[in-house]
Design a protein that fits this description.
about 200 residues; mainly alpha
Length: about 200
């Protein structure tokens, strides 16, 4: 009797397989696939346009490079003054002045231009003296000392005229005309003054 019941249960038992649903009335029946959603909610979101700020060319100047150029030029000027290479040191001072002009450190630029002019006059380097006087005049005008800047331009015009440098004389005359009747003006708003000017450039 025991064996009969065991055989009976084995014959009617369901399969342990996961496909048990294929047996009986569900066999061969397939349910329709789930429909894909059509609500593209992301497309309805409005994004504001982001405007990129314009980069001014002056902002591309690397202050790190200017500081490095100042350091190297200062070292060269000290070396040339120590070994009495005054003519070369005069150009070093002009280079330092140009660096300070780019940084709007006009008082320092003015000081080094004056030192360069002292040496270039002593060395009878008229071309360099002319360039220094024009730069010095521009610095003084930017600092508000238009009258002093005019005096430097007049001296520069005399040098250009005596040496027959017509192109330079024409540029100087045009600059003089632009400041005609002006004795002083407000300095640049971002003007920076030096706390202590390094006196390495003093002549020995």
């Amino acid at each position: 009797m025991k064996y009969f019941v065991l055989v009976l249960f084995c014959s009617i038992s369901f399969s342990a397989s996961a496909q048990w649903w294929r047996i009986g009335p569900l066999k061969g029946k397939r349910f329709p696939p789930i429909a894909n959603t059509t609500n593209h909610s992301v497309e309805k979101i409005k994004f504001e346009a982001v405007s990129c700020p314009k980069i001014i060319s002056n902002e591309l100047i690397s202050w790190y490079r200017l500081n490095m150029a100042e350091y190297k030029t200062m070292r060269n000027a000290q070396h040339n003054m120590r070994f009495r290479e005054y003519s070369t040191a005069s150009y070093n001072f002009s280079d330092l002045a140009n660096i300070y002009i780019k940084q709007n450190r006009l008082s320092e630029a003015k000081w080094y231009l004056l030192q360069s002019i002292l040496i270039s006059r002593r060395e009878n380097n008229s071309r360099h003296t002319l360039a220094n006087l024009i730069s010095l005049a521009n610095v003084k005008i930017d600092m508000g000392d238009v009258n002093l800047g005019r005096q430097d331009l007049l001296e520069a015009r005399q040098i250009a005229s005596s040496n027959g440098w017509k192109a330079d004389e024409k540029v100087i005359v045009k600059k003089l005309e632009s400041i005609q009747g002006i004795n002083s003006q407000a300095p640049k708003s971002e003007l920076k003054y030096a706390d202590n000017v390094d006196p390495v450039a003093k002549s020995k």
